[in-house]
Amino acid sequence: MTGASQGIGKAIVQTFMDRGYNVVATSRTVSEAGFALSSSLALHDGDISQAETAGKVAQAAVGKSGSIDHVVNNAGIFSVKPFTEYTADEFRRFVSVNLEGFIFITAACSRADAVAGQRRQRDNHYCGARRQPHRRSLELPTLYLTCFEMCLVSRKRRFGW
Prior knowledge:
This protein is mainly α and 161 residues long. Helix content is 47%, strand content 11%. The radius of gyration is 16 Å and the shape is globular.
């Protein structure tokens, strides 16, 4: 779970834990998010726009659970100003977190799970919740919840909960 230190990301982490999942949560400051200590939760502070962070998170997930059932790409940044006013540095940061971070964690988890031998035997779910600069913030909860519901639908069908 990326972007796990606050808001919807933090709530999704707690919901997965409440449902009995082991969770590996990451954000730049997730260790300061106030999660209760739990054997089913591993926290990893890091910048998801860095491939090394994604690799460490993926390895932690496979090490903790033996496989990766779901990846929820929740991390994202945006600015409310028109894109014509973005500086080159702002644009690079948006691309780094919102695009590269999404690709790095999804690919790292897919590779780590394949190496663990689980990919052929399990149905894995890679979901992305992206903030859109042109959307109003009131629409974001719907976007995130839709992603979360997509992740859980197959488990409900498969395990009946």
